[in-house]
Amino acid sequence: MLKVERDITIARQVEEVFAFVADFDHFTLWSTDVVKAELLNGRRVGVGTRARITRRALGQNFDMLFEMVHFDPPWHIGFEGEMLGVPFRSALRFRPAGTDRTRVTQSGEVLIPPLLFFVEPTARQVLAATFENDLRKLKQVLEADGQR
Asked: Which candidate among 34, 45, 54, 100 keeps its CA 20 to 30 Å from the CA of 26?
């Protein structure tokens, strides 16, 4: 199983960062390659929430279906789902990092089918770059707008 983890510190309180990330309407504002995000079972977000996001990569749109499996405000959000038939897990964890600062850790696991073991190094680089870009964008958006 391929595992990747990245983190960043954001100059905002844990509750603010969690609330922003947990608001599904903000997904396209901080996830750099997501072009569409929609909840599939109402507007309430929590364990059991199902969603579809559309990612743009390599000139193509790819749908990802997932379900929220952890929702522990303001500390942890976790998802499970699949993209192109490949299962994945993803999580965001939020921890205080001093006064009015939050350490956000994004982690992911992808189950690479045994016959595709050769794509694992590339997949690891892509996932790591995606997490790094997403976290930088989240930091940029939250630190630029003190009113969120």
From this structure: 100
